[in-house]
Amino acid sequence: MQLRLFAIVSAFVMLMGISSRSGLPELYQNQNASGNQPAVEEWRDDFEGAALDEGKWEPYTFNGGGGKIEIKDQQLRLLGSGDSRSGVRSKPTFRGERFLVEAKLAKVGPRHPQPGEAAFPPGFAILAILFDGNPSNRIEWILRSDGLFEAWVSVDGRMERVDNTKLATREKNVRLGVGRRGEHVYFLLNGEVGLEQPGTRNVAEFQSDDLRLWVHRE
């Protein structure tokens, strides 16, 4: 199976590094019949250049547009505009029935109020896995600027929230992760599983051979 990354941000997000691994032996202690751990293929970006690596990423948006993308001090900085979903999506696709995607966040800020809003609403940093490279089929792991988490699955544009609405953190240095084994999806915080969705019906419908990563804001 192939995957692609999409980083979505809400308001202001600083992302310090991102990596993708297929094989994912650390989540899968059950070895195969030969007793060998699966091979691991790793792809990463530590944002060490002066600009976004165009060989790895491309600007990507839906539900509106706008926003600012820059690389500074080895950080990917995404500043959103309005209530659009804009960010960066990986150019390569990735293959693997088992995968782990991680993104290290430096900061998530609130978004600017829209007309009629009295205060600054929470901003969202969203790590998403796109199946078919299409936002209609995706998994999202969200950290809000108020410390709350949200986990979502979308199948053919039908969104379903799969967390209990009570997940939160006070950690300042956060590493978000999404892993998959078959129909099981793991939502991770700093390498620890915070939410597991065993036998998720919607995830079982994802049979695509084309996945991408998306990091974006809302």
Layout of SSEs?
Blueprint: E1 4-9, E2 12-22, E3 41-45, E4 57-62, E5 68-72, E6 75-79, E7 85-90, E8 98-108, E9 124-131, E10 138-144, E11 149-155, E12 158-161, E13 174-181, E14 184-189, E15 192-197, H1 201-204, E16 211-217
Parallel strand pairs: 1-16
Antiparallel strand pairs: 1-7, 1-9, 2-3, 2-6, 2-8, 4-7, 5-6, 7-16, 8-13, 9-16, 10-11, 11-12, 13-14, 14-15
Q: Please state the oligomeric state of the protein chains shown.
A: single chain
**How many discrete domains?**
1
What low-confidence regions span 5 or more consecutive residues with pLDDT below 50?
1-12, 28-33
Could you say which structural class the secondary elements and strand pairing correspond to? mainly beta
**Arithmetic mean of pLDDT:** 76
Just give the CATH class.
Mainly Beta
**Into which percentage range does the β-strand content fall?**
over 45%
Q: What global shape is seen?
A: globular
Total DSSP helices = 1
Named CATH architecture:
Sandwich
**Cα radius of gyration in angstroms:** 16 Å
The H-and-E topology, N to C, reads as EEEEEEEEEEEEEEEHE
Helix content: under 10%
Largest pleated sheet: 8 strands, antiparallel
* N-end to C-end Cα span: 28 Å
Please provide the count of β strands. Answer: 16
Task: Determine the CATH topology.
Answer: Jelly Rolls
